[in-house]
């Protein structure tokens, strides 16, 4: 049955990688392999339990006779729920941050971005919109931030080729900004939740590599843009009278939303509670502030109309389902012991976390960045710092392996437009072909990735 589960996962990889041509949504595939994998596992649960949890299972029986029902109850309570809780904590965090972004967006708290980039100069527009994307992605959800910036850019730039180039720069900035902090990307959230990394240590090492991975391709993209862009500036969007906030009120809400998320690492350090609880607390406070500031409008007898793009709404839901499905799928494969065997083979034949990171980066561009990152994370357990040798030191808390994987998969997901959800959103929005992206942008992203990886290598070995 292990072979069936592994084949199911590999087929899932293939379908996810070819989703842009087959039209099959990768979130549906992730949910399918995650659910069916556990069904197959529990149908033959006795073999798996006796192989990996024999002692705990006998203690669970407490003298009772073993049976198929007992095995299923043991798997549900002691194995399955662990992976559900692990996935749910990430999903709840994403749900909270996506809701925070939506509340801020609907109240015009990001309108300053549109005013800030009001220019026809290509250099100024490109750098201001990507800088805003980089900063916001590091503090909010990178998918929602990228999609929001793509919508803003799409309404401003009239030339399609210029939109595709600037849109690609936005996707790069979002992914690089997301991997800068422990709350900016689902991969870093998983690593932080598993206590493989700490917030301060991780960001201090990733700051310069992430900046360079964004700056280098953006410089190269800027060289292909004309000096003056074909832009059209419409009036500020009509929001259906769903917000009448003054500028100072929008600043307050922005401070509550983003400032609250900044406090989450401290909250986790002090309380040791899951980070998603802190995110939900921030959401609840922001929600209350929103209700208070819009109390007159909320009591009015009228329908609120919002211009939140459907791509944001549906994209966020799909991202949540995708993360849940992938994490459940990785959990069931981990329980078969296959990942442990693969890790031993990699240690014997490759014996280099840097080679594994680079390969993972290329695979992220082909398959999906989060899928490959979760596969890499599932390969190894956090090593005990007191019992490690020179190679095993890569897998301790704040070890090099976790940083390399987070960086390579995040930036590698930009090598092709199908490697990340925000890249797929750009493809749909601009009707972009994969071949065009490969020809015009892949080498630029690769240059930034290699420069950032070189700096990370220097930091990890000499700093």
Can you walk me through this structure?
This protein is mainly alpha-helical and 463 residues long. It has helices at 2-17, 19-22, 26-43, 45-52, 54-61, 68-106, 111-116, 122-139, 142-156, 160-178, 186-193, 199-222, 247-262, 264-271, 275-293, 295-299, 310-336, 338-349, 353-366, 369-379, 400-412, 421-430, 434-440, 442-462. Helix 6 (68-106) packs antiparallel against helix 13 and helix 9 runs parallel beside helix 22. Keywords: Antiport, Ion transport, Membrane, Sodium, Sodium transport, Transmembrane, Transmembrane helix, Transport. Belongs to the NhaD Na(+)/H(+) (TC 2.A.62) antiporter family. It is found in: Membrane. Pfam families: CitMHS (PF03600).
Attribute tags:
globular, single chain, mainly alpha, 463 residues, 0% strand
Q: Roughly what fraction of the amino acids lie in strands?
A: under 5%
Radius of gyration: 23 Å
Largest sheet report = none
What is the terminal separation in angstroms? 47 Å
Shape verdict: globular
Uncertain runs with pLDDT below 50, 5 residues or more?
237-242, 300-312
Work out the helix count.
24
Q: What is the typical, i.e. mean, pLDDT?
A: 86
Query: How many runs of DSSP E, i.e. beta strands?
Result: 0
Structural class: mainly alpha
What's the helical proportion of residues? Answer: over 70%
């Amino acid at each position: 049955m292990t072979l069936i589960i592994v084949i199911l996962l590999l087929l899932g990889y293939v379908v996810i990688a070819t989703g842009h041509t087959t039209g099959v949504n990768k979130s549906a595939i992730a949910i399918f392999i995650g659910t069916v994998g556990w069904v197959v596992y529990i149908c033959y649960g006795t073999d798996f339990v006796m192989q990996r949890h024999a002692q705990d299972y006998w203690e669970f029986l407490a003298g009772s006779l073993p049976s198929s029902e007992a095995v299923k109850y043991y798997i549900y309570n002691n194995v399955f729920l662990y992976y559900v809780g692990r996935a749910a904590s990430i999903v709840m965090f994403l749900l909270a941050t996506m809701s925070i972004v939506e509340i801020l967006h609907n109240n015009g708290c990001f309108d300053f971005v549109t005013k800030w980039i009001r220019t026809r100069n290509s250099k100024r527009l490109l750098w201001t919109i990507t800088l805003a994307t980089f900063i916001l992605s590091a503090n909010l959800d990178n998918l929602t931030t990228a999609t929001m910036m793509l919508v803003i850019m799409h309404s401003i730039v009239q030339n399609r080729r210029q939109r595709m180039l600037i849109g690609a720069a936005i996707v790069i900035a979002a992914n690089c900004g997301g991997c800068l902090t422990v709350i900016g990307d689902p991969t870093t959230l998983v690593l932080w939740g598993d206590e493989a990394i700490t917030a301060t240590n991780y960001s201090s090492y990733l700051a310069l590599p992430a900046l360079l991975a964004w700056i280098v391709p953006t410089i190269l993209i800027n060289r292909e843009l004309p000096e003056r862009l074909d832009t059209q500036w419409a009036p500020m969007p009509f929001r259906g009278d769903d917000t009448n906030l003054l500028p100072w009120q929008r600043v307050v809400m922005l401070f509550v939303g983003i400032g609250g998320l900044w406090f989450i690492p401290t909250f986790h350090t002090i309380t040791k509670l899951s980070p998603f609880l802190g995110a939900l607390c921030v959401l609840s406070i922001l929600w209350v502030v929103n209700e208070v500031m819009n109390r007159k409008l909320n009591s009015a007898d009228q329908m609120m109309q919002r211009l939140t793009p459907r791509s944001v709404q549906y994209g966020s839901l799909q991202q949540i389902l995708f993360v849940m499905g992938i994490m459940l799928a990785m959990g069931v494969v981990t329980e078969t012991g296959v990942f442990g065997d693969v890790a031993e083979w990699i240690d014997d034949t490759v014996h280099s976390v840097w080679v594994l990171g680079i390969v993972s980066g290329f695979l992220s561009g082909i398959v999906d960045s989060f899928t490959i990152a979760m596969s890499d994370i599932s390969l190894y357990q956090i090593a005990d710092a007191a019992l490690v040798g020179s190679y095993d030191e890569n897998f301790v808390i704040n070890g090099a392996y976790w940083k390399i994987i987070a960086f390579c998969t995040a930036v590698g997901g930009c090598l092709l437009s199908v490697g990340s959800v925000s890249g797929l959103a750009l493809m749909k929005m601009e009707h972009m072909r994969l071949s065009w992206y490969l020809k015009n942008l892949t080498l630029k992203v690769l240059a930034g990735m290699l420069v950032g990886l070189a700096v990370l290598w220097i930091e990890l070995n000499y700093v």
